[in-house]
Amino acid sequence: MPNAYSRALKAHDNNQEGIRLQKILAQAGFGSRRKCEQIILDGRVEVDGELVTELGTRADPSKQEIRVDGSRVRLNPNHITLALNKPRKVLSTMDDPKGRYTLRDIVGDKYERIFHMGRLDYDSEGLILMTNDGELSQHVMHPKYEVEKTYIATLQGRISGNVCRRLVSQGVQLDDGWIRLDHCAIIDANHDTTLVKVVLHSGKNRIVRRIFDAVGFPVKRLVRTQIGPIKLGDLKSGSYRVLSQTEVRSLAKEVGL
């Protein structure tokens, strides 16, 4: 039960315009109220371009631009962002006229106007991000930002370290131009298959499969494990979780919001 002081403080807050900055920052995932107060005192917060160091300062996050260390504070209780682990044989769409399994079959109709940020092909697995935040989605999918994506690929055949290094240093020419991997490392190998970790920024359709097809090592299995700062982790196939405010903030910062 709240004590008389906290009730009075809440009533006082509600009678004044705006919300205390430290409360806004705490709700946005910057830590405890005390930690957020220190962030303000350290001169890391701006409201509409003006540096704020007074703890009593109030703001309206729906009308004013609040930034911490230059990154905008995003606080909308109606926005939701999900991490979903897509299984094989699931379409990266919300509906399918042929009645095939889609992302909607996993998330249901619990969230209004939610949609996926990017896709995975029908036979690929792993991390897909979904949101009802249009601005965040536009930035994540915009070619200007080309968010880094990490995959674990099982290749047919035994690829050499030299081929991996060449895909990073020189790249390979595909039908739609040259493409390079940002990173390629062999995790394990036997006579028939090679397990590799690859990182790249491109979001082109089936790009990982096309790269390895071009060098003679078709992909037998492909799992996306990370998009920007968001990791798949131990999320079970066919399930999803709601991203924390801290995760959403890190993703937004990655794409310039």
UniProtKB/TrEMBL annotation:
InterPro entries, per database record: PsdUridine_s_RsuA/RluB/E/F_cat, PsdUridine_synth_cat_dom_sf, PsdUridine_synth_RsuA/RluA, PsdUridine_synth_RsuA/RluB/E/F, PsdUridine_synth_RsuA/RluB_CS, RsuA_PseudoU_synthase, S4_RNA-bd, S4_RNA-bd_sf
SMART domains, alphabetized: S4
EC number assigned by the record: 5.4.99.-
GO terms classed as biological process: enzyme-directed rRNA pseudouridine synthesis
PROSITE patterns per record: PSI_RSU, S4
Recorded superkingdom: Bacteria
Membrane-traversing stretches: none
Domain RNA-binding S4: 19-78
Reactions catalysed, as given in the entry: a uridine in RNA = a pseudouridine in RNA
Molecular-function annotations in GO: RNA binding; rRNA pseudouridine synthase activity
The family this protein is said to belong to: Belongs to the pseudouridine synthase RsuA family.
PANTHER family: PSEUDOURIDINE SYNTHASE FAMILY PROTEIN-RELATED, RNA-BINDING S4 DOMAIN-CONTAINING PROTEIN
Protein name listed in UniProt: Pseudouridine synthase
